[in-house]
# Entry
Amino acid sequence: MLKSAQIVSQIQLLIKNGALKAHQKLPSLREQSMQSGFSLMTVLSAYQQLEAQGLIYSKQKSGFYVAGAQVDASSASEALQHTTKIEINSQVFHYLKDTQQQDIIPLCSAFPDHALLFNPRLMSIIAQHAKKRPSYQQNANLPPGNLALRQLIANKYIVQGIATSADDIVITSGALDALNLSLEALTQAGDYILLQQHIFYGAWQASERLGLQVISIPEHPQFGFDLDAFEQALQRYPIKVCWLMLNSHNPIGFTVSDEIKARIGELLQQYQVHLIEDDVYQEMYFGQHKPLSMKFFDQDNDVLHCSSFSKLLGSGTRIGWVHAGRYSEAIQHRQQMRTLSASPLIQNALGDFLSSQHYEKHLRTLRRTLAQNKKQFYQALQRILPNTCEIQYFESGYFLWIKLPESVNADTLYQTLLAENIGISPSSLFNPQHDQSSYFRLNCSFAWSPEIEQACVRIGEMISTLSE
Amino acid sequence: MLKSAQIVSQIQLLIKNGALKAHQKLPSLREQSMQSGFSLMTVLSAYQQLEAQGLIYSKQKSGFYVAGAQVDASSASEALQHTTKIEINSQVFHYLKDTQQQDIIPLCSAFPDHALLFNPRLMSIIAQHAKKRPSYQQNANLPPGNLALRQLIANKYIVQGIATSADDIVITSGALDALNLSLEALTQAGDYILLQQHIFYGAWQASERLGLQVISIPEHPQFGFDLDAFEQALQRYPIKVCWLMLNSHNPIGFTVSDEIKARIGELLQQYQVHLIEDDVYQEMYFGQHKPLSMKFFDQDNDVLHCSSFSKLLGSGTRIGWVHAGRYSEAIQHRQQMRTLSASPLIQNALGDFLSSQHYEKHLRTLRRTLAQNKKQFYQALQRILPNTCEIQYFESGYFLWIKLPESVNADTLYQTLLAENIGISPSSLFNPQHDQSSYFRLNCSFAWSPEIEQACVRIGEMISTLSE
# Structure
């Protein structure tokens, strides 16, 4: 028996017998080495094996601790992934640079077709404001941002039954700014964050930048969100904050049910964990009612709900917000040091536009068109792509999430299509842990056209070529 | 003789004899304790005394090192200040909130009177662009920003004899964003940064946020910049980056001569130190020629030059830039994770405006008006303020820097005037080390009026009251 294996089995037994309790600190490497007579390296190896088994976890500069309850460890625990060192920024940087070229067919884009977002009425309101002096005043862009706009945003929560005042809202330079400010306000280097296994790469980038340890939970194949894996992660690791996307999920496209959201809210309260909710696609529903945000199920005011107008009115708006509640001042502190709030001109204009009936009309048209275009893409792709591909279709959002045959790597597919000026988004962008299965995300917001059809035919041909 | 004093004099001697050389690592606390037989606390106390004497310096997580050459230590060294823990954010936050009220007389403002910045021609160009689709395109706000605008900014350097291409320029969300991105690209927590003793509070805030150690050098009473203190700081401390303001300095108002700038450039090269130059007031000169930036004296491409249009065309623009040179990609990396570049609409419009003759005309009028208004303020304040005040007047910028009589504290003056809705900026905002002498900054960009005169009279009366 290896020396390290002796330590491993000894600690396994102590945990099983209850001699070592959940969240109890283990002897330090040095102490364990002196007690056992084994070298530091042997003890370290043993601790790392126990960590890989999910029996213990480490905290930066503090040491090793016994993990939480081991119930059901057999099923979900293998699916939980613990990432201490993320490296995704360089990949995302080059992806964005490469797919930013003018002549790319942008099936990779995270935005709806900009032809659908352009609203002449909003543009004319901006033009009117541009000629007025008040839209250009000195203090208009200091945090928390334009009061009238904050009140209008607060009203959108109120009509969903979520008590909100303008003071809860902080205007930001887009949703990415809102998400980053929220994460900075809630975490310190070394803290644990819980992410969905596939999520907007900005979540991984921010975790890398802030030196966080990531626990990721797999998606549920049917319901989108795996409550068992979620609860197990909360039990097992000292999670400080979750960053989740539950409505028109990017990249996959599902919307999580109210029942599951209610349970997520209970678990957040039970484990006293904060949630940063990325809800930039909240308006992209196909049904009668806008899906609820986690703010509706937020019992302790622990949810920071982030969204923006960029996916609705164009990336040129660069206006996002966070429903920050009691964290409003902490977030404004950080804004004041960095970016202030956002263009006062656009804030003023948006205020006027939102209080007209044109905004809701714009959204209704946008949703109807997106639903139609996505269905058309889905039907066409079922015909065009090789039947070794598995197309995941959900009734929300404008993404299709496509599983490739095992022999085809999505990164290779991405690179070869890029050479033909066709953009797709490989799954490694959304999950830097590099799963065995490869997927890609396709933007289906565009009107079907001969050019789009030709691009999709090439995607299909390339998949066939690569799988030979 | 105290035990710690024994260690102190021993190490002093070893440094003097050359047995311990500049930047050589001292024995660790534990080693020194074992060698000397004294306790850890005694050794720590000795090292702290040596650090206070400027003979050694500490590096986070690394240990203690012998400081650089001790020449002329008598004069300037006492003026160098070493700040390891900055706490200014909370003060700045409340200052900005308090002085942001609508009815404040904004003699505290860092911006010129907005009546001078409002340009109807620019506004009508923005209005035209707001109606066009391209200004709202998806990728237009990805780093490094609008190409035409970057080329126009590059041209401004070229006409000053500074070889620059559009690729050197990165567009940011205002100068504050440019400065922060530059500092993040160049430093890690624990690094040494050199600041002027009084400087825009954003420099202190950024240093606090990033956990930097600050070495600050006093201003030269005649020339603005103290070259001796600067060289001594570079000799003595392992400075990684300097953050300086040399043109129309905020808060004091001086502009440093070309001769001094040339020498700063030589020293930066000699000590291989980077410079982040805050040059937001570069256009605020009263003479015939725009003062040179440090990019002109930048031999190794180590200067990151930051500026913006906010002080020229209104804070509503929120467009700044950094001449980033070889750091362009590092800065774009950080932008992509946070704020992207800036409003594509305003970038497009600015491009058109800058390439017309209206921009230079706007600047000429602005400069002429600011020079007139500042002179009028200066003459009136000499009459109005008690003669125990010392008004510092420089031929650039729109600030006056006023030294209070010894018995008057600028923070107290600020608070009492705030209660009467008069805003001034106390010196503690620009130097959190709290000097004995108190100053305040007065914004003199406004046209003299009965309301302004009344406010200045109240400032004078309050100073007299507080000095009784």
Q: What stands out?
A: Chain A touches chain B through 54 residues (CB under 8 Å). Chain A has three domains: 3-68, 89-115+360-466, 118-356. Chain A has 18 helices and 16 strands. Residues 70-76 of chain A have pLDDT under 50 and may be disordered.
